[in-house]
Specification:
Layout lengths: L2 E8 L6 H12 L12 E8 L6 H11 L3 E6 L5 H9 L6 E4 L11 H9 L4 E8 L5 H16 L9 E8 H8 L8 H8 L3 E7 L12 H15 L2 H31 L6 H33 L7 E4 L1 H9 L6
Parallel strand pairs: 1-2, 1-4, 2-3, 5-7
Antiparallel strand pairs: 3-8, 4-6, 5-6
Helix pairs in contact: 9-10
The structure holds uridine-5'-diphosphate and magnesium ion.
Length: about 325
């Protein structure tokens, strides 16, 4: 029987976990009508991303009740991207479905994803038809961001597609092999390739709690996305530098000619100030962009592990031995 793993990152989700368990039950018992009688082995990997509430205790309770619910507790909050990697390292299924713990990703879409996987697709992504409750600013920001990102790279990151997706074991192993510690998983799915198809879904509202993705976190993730995915900003800095230099040379020739023809009484304070400020701004911008990339090189060169595990369910170790999944 084929095995399917569910990977769910959990951060301060104590209020959602009971609902999550209840929603998953029909699937895990192969009773979900969408499965059309197909039977699978299931496992659920819940990665506790350093929650401050009682999420981890709840995960332990779930594990005690049903050993298919395995948990990994990280030593602190490493962020969703790194929590996902901890899960990638531990799943043993032939395919893996990633979903959020807050049930914004409907369980009913999973059978459709499995169907597409059985049809031969290796990366079945969920395509959001609606984005749930979200501010207009966030929506506008997201739209512009994807436009920019896709303009600057050859490998497109799909808009309205997030982490809700099914990956074949091949894709899981490929993404596992990318060990950068500053991760932008959405870009990685696209970068590794594989046959992709989409399944539409409607984002539900959170069952409980509040989103953890504050505006600042989103801006960080967006910058991470651009700098880890493309070096286009460096090229832009070069082009900008070239254009400004060209304009400066033209202006210089003009000034020299003007001085030769008309002479130069001491004037031109505004011109000098404007030029200095403009050039200073351009230089700082270019330096900032270069700095972003150097910062990344610095962080990656330390070769720190992307996450640290504090505890995990016992069955994890047995599973990893059985399936020869080597843990870092
Ligand atoms: N999450 C996580 N670590 C974090 C932030 C979030 O593991 O630092 C998990 C969270 O528990 C949830 C998923 O990532 O399962 C999506 O988070 P959230 O619902 O806050 O984001 P949104 O859906 O609003 O983008
Ligand atoms: Mg959510």
């Amino acid at each position: 029987m084929k095995k399917i793993s569910l990977l769910i990152p959990v951060y301060n989700e104590e209020a959602s976990l009971d609902a999550l368990h209840a929603a998953l039950c029909p699937l895990l018992s192969n009773q979900h009508p969408g499965l059309k009688g197909q039977k699978y082995d299931w496992e659920v990997i819940l990665v506790d991303d350093g929650s401050q509430d009682s999420s981890l205790e709840k995960l332990k309770e779930l594990n005690a009740k049903d050993s298919r619910f395995r948990y990994v507790g990280l030593s602190r909050n490493f962020g969703k991207e790194n929590a996902l990697l901890a899960g990638f390292d531990r799943t043993t299924g032939d395919a893996m479905v990633i979903m959020d713990a807050d049930l914004q990703h409907p369980v009913d879409t999973i059978p459709e994803m499995i169907e597409q996987w059985e049809n031969g697709f290796e990366d079945v992504y969920g395509h959001r038809l609606t984005r749930g409750k979200e501010s207009t600013v966030r929506r506008l920001f997201t739209k512009t961001y994807y436009k920019l990102l896709n303009k600057s790279t050859r490998v497109d990151v799909l808009p309205d597609v997030g982490d809700f997706r099914l990956l074949d074991r091949k894709a899981v192993d490929a993404i596992r092999s990318l060990r950068e510690s500053q991760r932008y998983t959405k870009g990685l799915y696209c970068w590794v390739g594989f046959r992709k198809t989409g399944v539409d879904f409607r984002t539900a509202d959170r069952v409980a709690g509040e989103t953890h993705m504050s505006a600042a976190r989103l801006v960080n993730l967006a910058a991470e996305g651009i700098t880890s995915y493309t070096t286009a900003p460096l090229r832009i800095a070069t082009v900008l530098g070239f254009l400004v230099s060209l304009a400066s040379i033209c202006y210089m020739i003009y000034i020299i000619c003007k001085t030769i023809i008309y002479g130069e009484p001491i004037q031109g304070f505004p011109t000098i100030i404007c030029t200095i400020l403009f050039l200073g701004g351009c230089q700082l911008l270019a330096l900032g962009i270069i700095g972003e990339y150097i910062g990344k090189i610095y962080n990656e060169s330390k070769q720190r592990p992307p996450y640290i595990v504090s505890e995990e369910s016992d069955s994890d170790k047995k599973m990893s031995e059985k399936y020869n999944v080597s843990l870092p």
